[in-house]
Write a sequence for this structure.
């Protein structure tokens, strides 16, 4: 029924750990991103290099390390949000994780989960590991330190829970005492908040009794006598100090406190030093015994240095601000002054500490948390087969990411990337560019011929990349535009201008041959191979010249005026033919190159389409298939055919829309005689073969006007790309990947909307600043240009007023028409003494011709305006406890007004809205989804609840994904697909929404956006929505077509036996729906695309085995074609099609 697959994996970093996992003597960094583990090593430039990435069945909440006696490397201890724990080692042979031990669910069903995050510690003696997952419970795992038959030294024993009185523990740490003295009991320090909301420090001792023959053993934490002390209210972190200094540091908001290890009774006065400025510390890392790096909530990084006296006791300390980074979730000291800053709400970084400063040496892009997003449609696709806007690069997802100073606007787009290698300088109005060799003995090109409307310029490159512009080159005509230039065998060079074709010798510059049209006609089109030159003269005459025989004429032909030539091409792929496109009737003819007589003529568009072919290219795209003909039409369509090399018949017509204007093609070699095609148009695209199919993917060079291959010694496999402003040398990716473009806002981008007509994004932001130690929060509405991501204008909201929602819509303009408008919903807290009643405003903005904001009107509303939508020309607002419908209108030429037309009181508070016709779906804070019927009237509208999902679900977002079908996400990371039972038997059935599918995504979804992608009749799934999460993931949600539903679900079930997660966590346990009140055993009618795609990574024999198990199912299914064998190859083709969705 439902299919979900990630198109952007989680990028938020909450946990990281340094350990010797891969090799005994080399340390690596393990980073946890939601349910993924990534391993990095440092390279020679001190930057981190990704070595391995693996998904696990659970969101990572704990990382730690242990070293068994028999292992030369560390083992990684991992804990998940489902309370599953396991240890992993690295297998150098398979280069994969190996599960050493996994633990059964340690969850205490009656206990409450820790509100301050999961923690894990290992005591200094290496005998115990503690886990703090539930309030009031510390689970102790003994570490074997005496060898026995069943367990080796260093392995973890069975978990043993111990109860403590402290429920709200903020921080904990073992005192770093001498671990060699086994008689000393480990001491655990706790910073906790008591029942009176006071913050205290307590020292406890761990008493452990091993299990015996008749005793199960036990563990207890005993309070030390007098080991309790009151702390400042802002105390948040404990830092244990290693010997010989020893003791504890307590980080607070206004001070730092030090306790020496000898002060076990906490009676002696500690060393307290106030901070110069109050702050909130959020992470720390130890550099050595006396130096620590601290990070605060505002992104500042500090170096804390303990100063000791002659006796080795702490005398005082020095705290210096060394720089500013993203707000750190975790800090890891690497080596030699390098620190990894892992961030949840900003980019993660690697920094180098310098004297009283720091330097960022590497940045890892992070789009988490995604608070809102919008889809920017750059084009549409049509034709045969299954297509998807995002995978083609024809659409991009623009997210409001990060928080506070790390807030940003991120453009996430699937496309072919470009890496700039250099720029030749500013050059305006380049019409084309060609690469040639500057001497006969050279094997690589080293010269660029750059042509303009009235001149041609030459740039020569040395082997070390130095470039020089030369005044003359090989006898070429440089005082006019060049239509074509290329190197030929025997050290010759071909140049074609509008007035002549010239053949010269590269070394001497002598003209070997020259051909000019008769009667002064102009050459309008040209195509050449190494042996032939095809020219269109005056758009009515065709001439074929022999390049190996000094321009001897092979054939000439004239066409009538009504049959003018629009475009031509010849190709070494099929040297005996030429292809000619005509203005009349959109015809393309295949002609004999030796006589120019027609072989086949095809009309490439239907009668209703008046477009004409404007560019042709014939090349080998597939290794074991005939050449492919590309036809660029004047209206932006690109049509492709397969050209049979024997019969010259065209077949397999496919069409795609790349833009609104014609594209021009350039061939880029890929090796082995194959090529990809660069299409220069509004959205430049690379067309290449992947898994037996053509892939169209947008290139990140949005302003490209022309391109050519430039495989020079200094720039191997490079391309030269010209824009209207400059010429660059760049490396182009072979195929598409995900690219992220960033606009740093330095404010929380809470809401975002896109206007295609205005070509701007509207975003509501929240800014936080510190003034004299006090936080000042301000909010505003901004507009940003869609292309250059530049802020155009902003409108500041009132004091204590925050933006809650932003919507783009069309509203009355007062002249009987509609105009683009942005509607902004806000909330603010009234001044104390007036009831502290939360209220809000609804603001309507227009964007003027000068691209600045103008407030059209505003309306006060009775409650925070949480969400906005449009229904039948009305504004629908989700207020604090009400759904209200408003009409925006101009009355008798006066200023516009907003009039309330209807209202409906929800169960608790509306969180999100989606509109489907006259049905308004409301996601409620606590009561799932309700459907309201909206009937617009002249005097008043009517809102009536017609159906609902009457269960307790803490909703976060909702989207309509089909007729009477709705997808909802909740705060516990679940997804529910619900259907309205319009044809229910009873009235109760019709009022109750039925859950058709449910699963646990493992990440909280903040926003869903419906997408309309036309799927072919043979499509396996139909894309319906994009989902964005707190962890920075973006998912594609689709509905499985009925004929493939059982097949994909059975395939998923079978694959769970073959695809094992590190930790051996069952797939069904990971994906099963789970809330505090209900837990399932497996996902219901949901297919995980990431698991299904693992089929393609399996060995061929395993694929055959899986296919054999599915034969009994597919026998009774209407899948495949007549006589189609549903073998492993068929399944590979099926799943490759699913993979191309993203």
């Amino acid at each position: 029924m439902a299919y979900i697959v990630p198109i952007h994996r989680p990028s938020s970093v909450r946990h990281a750990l340094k350990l010797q996992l891969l090799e005994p003597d080399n340390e690596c960094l393990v980073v946890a991103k939601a349910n993924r583990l990534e391993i990095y090593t440092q390279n020679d430039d001190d930057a981190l290099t990704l070595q391995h990435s693996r998904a696990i069945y659970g969101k990572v909440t704990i990382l730690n390390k242990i070293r068994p006696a028999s292992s030369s490397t560390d083992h990684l201890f991992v804990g998940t949000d489902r309370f599953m724990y396991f240890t992993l080692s690295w297998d150098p042979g398979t280069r994969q994780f190996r599960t050493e031990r996994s633990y059964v669910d340690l969850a205490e069903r009656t206990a409450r989960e820790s509100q301050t995050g999961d923690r894990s510690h290992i005591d200094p003696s290496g005998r115990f590991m503690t886990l703090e997952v539930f309030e009031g419970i510390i689970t102790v795992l003994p570490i074997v330190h005496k060898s026995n038959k069943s367990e080796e030294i260093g392995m973890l024993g069975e978990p043993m829970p111990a109860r403590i009185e402290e429920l709200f523990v903020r921080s904990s740490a073992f005192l770093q005492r001498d671990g060699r003295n086994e008689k000393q009991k480990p001491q655990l320090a706790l910073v906790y908040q008591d029942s009176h909301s006071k913050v205290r420090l307590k020292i406890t001792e761990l008493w452990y009794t091993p299990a015996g023959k008749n005793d199960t053993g036990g563990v207890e934490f005993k309070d030390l006598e007098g080991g309790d002390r009151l702390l400042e209210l802002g105390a948040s972190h404990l830092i244990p100090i290693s010997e010989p200094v020893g003791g504890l540091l307590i980080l607070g908001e206004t001070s730092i406190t030090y306790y020496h290890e000898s002060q076990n009774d906490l009676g002696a006065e500690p060393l307290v030093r106030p901070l110069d400025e109050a702050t909130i510390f959020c992470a720390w890392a130890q550099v050595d015994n006396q130096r620590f790096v601290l990070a605060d909530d505002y992104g500042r990084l500090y170096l804390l240095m303990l100063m000791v006296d002659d006796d080795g006791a702490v005398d005082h300390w020095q705290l210096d601000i060394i720089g500013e980074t993203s707000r750190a979730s975790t800090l890891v000291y690497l080596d030699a002054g390098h620190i990894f800053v892992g961030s949840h709400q900003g980019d993660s970084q690697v920094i180098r500490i310098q004297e009283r400063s720091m330097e960022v040496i590497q940045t890892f892009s992070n789009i988490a948390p995604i608070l809102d997003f919008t889809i920017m449609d750059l084009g549409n696709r049509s034709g045969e087969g299954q297509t998807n806007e995002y995978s083609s690069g024809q659409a991009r997802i623009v997210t409001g990411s990060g928080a506070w100073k790390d807030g940003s606007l991120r453009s996430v787009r699937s496309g072919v990337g470009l890496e700039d290698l250099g720029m030749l300088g500013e050059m305006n109005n380049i019409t084309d560019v060609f690469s040639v060799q500057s001497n006969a003995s050279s094997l690589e090109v080293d010269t660029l011929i750059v042509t303009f409307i009235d001149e041609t310029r030459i740039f020569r490159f040395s082997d070390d990349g130095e470039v020089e512009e030369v005044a003359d080159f090989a006898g070429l005509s440089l005082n006019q535009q060049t239509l074509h230039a290329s190197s030929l065998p025997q050290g010759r060079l071909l140049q074609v201008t509008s007035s002549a074709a010239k053949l010269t010798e590269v070394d001497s510059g002598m003209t070997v041959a020259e051909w000019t049209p008769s009667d002064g006609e102009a050459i309008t089109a040209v195509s050449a191979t190494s042996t032939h030159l095809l020219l269109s003269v005056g758009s009515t005459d065709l001439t074929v010249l022999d390049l190996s025989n000094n321009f001897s004429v092979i054939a000439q032909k004239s066409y009538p005026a009504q049959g003018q030539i629009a475009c031509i091409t010849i190709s070494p792929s099929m040297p005996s033919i030429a292809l000619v496109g005509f203005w009349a009737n959109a015809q393309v003819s295949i002609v004999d190159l030796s006589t120019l007589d027609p072989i086949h003529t095809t009309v490439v568009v239907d009668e209703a389409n008046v477009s004409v072919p404007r560019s042709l290219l014939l090349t080998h795209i597939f290794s074991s298939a005939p050449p492919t003909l590309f036809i660029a039409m004047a209206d932006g369509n690109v049509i492709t055919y397969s050209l049979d090399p024997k019969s010259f018949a065209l077949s397999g017509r496919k069409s795609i829309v790349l833009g609104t204007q014609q594209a021009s093609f350039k061939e880029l070699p890929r090796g082995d005689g194959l090529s990809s095609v660069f299409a220069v148009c509004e959205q430049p695209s690379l067309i290449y073969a992947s898994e037996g199919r053509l892939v169209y993917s947008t290139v990140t060079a949005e302003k490209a006007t022309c391109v050519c291959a430039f495989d020079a010694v200094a720039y191997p496999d490079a391309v030269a790309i010209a824009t209207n402003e400059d010429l660059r040398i760049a490396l182009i990716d072979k195929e598409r990947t995900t690219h992220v473009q960033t606009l740093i806002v330095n404010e929380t981008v809470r809401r975002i909307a896109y206007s295609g007509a205005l070509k701007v994004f509207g975003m509501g932001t929240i800014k936080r600043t510190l003034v004299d130690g006090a936080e000042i929060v301000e909010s505003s509405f901004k507009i940003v240009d869609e292309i250059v991501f530049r802020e155009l204008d902003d409108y500041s909201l009132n004091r204590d007023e925050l933006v809650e929602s932003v919507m783009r819509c069309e509203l009355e303009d007062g002249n009987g028409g509609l105009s683009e408008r942005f509607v902004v919903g806000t909330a603010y807290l009234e001044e104390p003494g007036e009831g502290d009643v939360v209220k809000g405003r609804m603001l309507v903005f227009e964007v003027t011709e000068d691209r600045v904001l103008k407030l059209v009107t505003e309306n006060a509303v009775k409650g925070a305006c949480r969400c906005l939508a449009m229904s039948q020309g009305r504004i629908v607002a989700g207020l604090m406890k009400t759904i209200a419908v408003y009409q925006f209108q101009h009355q008798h030429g006066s200023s516009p007004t907003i009039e309330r037309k209807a209202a409906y009181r929800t169960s608790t508070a509306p969180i999100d809205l989606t509109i489907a016709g006259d049905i308004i779906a409301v996601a409620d804070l606590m009561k799932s989804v309700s459907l309201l019927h909206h009937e617009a009237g002249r005097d008043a509208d009517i809102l009536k609840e017609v159906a609902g999902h009457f269960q307790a679900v803490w909703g976060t977002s909702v989207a309509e994904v089909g007729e009477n079908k709705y997808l909802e996400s909740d705060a516990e990371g679940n997804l529910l697909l619900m259907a309205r039972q319009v044809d229910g038997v009873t009235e109760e059935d019709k009022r109750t929404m039925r859950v058709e599918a449910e699963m646990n995504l493992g990440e909280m979804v903040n926003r869903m956006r419906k997408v309309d992608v036309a799927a072919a009749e043979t499509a396996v799934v139909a894309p319906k929505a994009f989902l964005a999460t707190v962890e920075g993931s973006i998912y594609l949600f689709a509905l499985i077509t009925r004929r493939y539903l059982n097949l994909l679900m059975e395939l998923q079930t079978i694959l769970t036996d073959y695809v094992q997660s590190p930790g051996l966590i069952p797939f069904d346990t990971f994906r099963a729906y789970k809330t505090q009140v209900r837990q399932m055993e497996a996902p219901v009618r949901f297919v995980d695309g990431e698991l299904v795609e693992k089929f393609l990574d399996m060995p061929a024999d395993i694929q055959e085995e899986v296919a054999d198990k599915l034969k009994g199912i597919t026998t009774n299914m209407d899948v495949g074609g007549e006589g189609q064998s549903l073998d492993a190859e068929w399944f590979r083709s099926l799943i490759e099609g699913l993979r191309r969705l993203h």
